[in-house]
Write a structure and sequence with these properties.
With 130 residues, the protein is of the alpha+beta class. The protein contains 4 helices and 5 strands. The chain has one domain (3-128): Trna Endonuclease, Chain: A, domain 1 (3-Layer(aba) Sandwich). It has a 5-stranded mixed sheet with strand order 1-2-3-4-5.
Length: 130
């Protein structure tokens, strides 16, 4: 198989796993009382996997999936560079939503999955701040 096809097949599988991880995370958060109001929102300098409401609080959720914990697991993969991109994406979201959204309290959560069957879920509330 040519190298480009192998890379495309890997990316397709990776994208499929990512989409499945986001669906599992959304169902989990909904079962915990959050309401999903946005999925896969993208801007040039960042993206948000899930945007939820938890009471009056807006929750920006980064979903991470790792099967191998040699490099610190899924939660550890949200470093300062990724946090900065999430913050910029949240700022875009808030700017688009207007004053009402901007006046609400907000937080950043991470949902880390260690398996795609829904058995290994870790929800880190208020994982990092502005």
């Amino acid at each position: 198989m040519p190298q480009a096809r192998i890379a495309a097949a890997r990316m397709n599988t990776r994208a499929q796993h990512g989409a499945l991880a986001e669906r599992i995370a959304a169902r989990y958060l909904e079962a915990c009382g959050l309401r999903v109001i946005g999925r896969n929102l993208r801007w040039r300098d960042g993206e948000l996997d899930l945007v939820c409401e938890h009471g009056d609080t807006l929750v920006f959720v980064e979903v991470r999936m790792r099967r191998d914990t040699r490099f610190g697991g899924a939660a550890a993969s949200v470093g300062t560079t990724k946090q900065a991109r999430l913050i910029r994406a949240a700022q875009h979201y808030l700017a688009e939503q207007g004053r009402r959204a901007q006046a609400r309290p907000a937080r950043f959560d991470v949902v880390a999955l260690s398996a795609l069957d829904g058995t290994g879920i870790e929800w880190i509330r208020d994982a990092f701040g502005l």
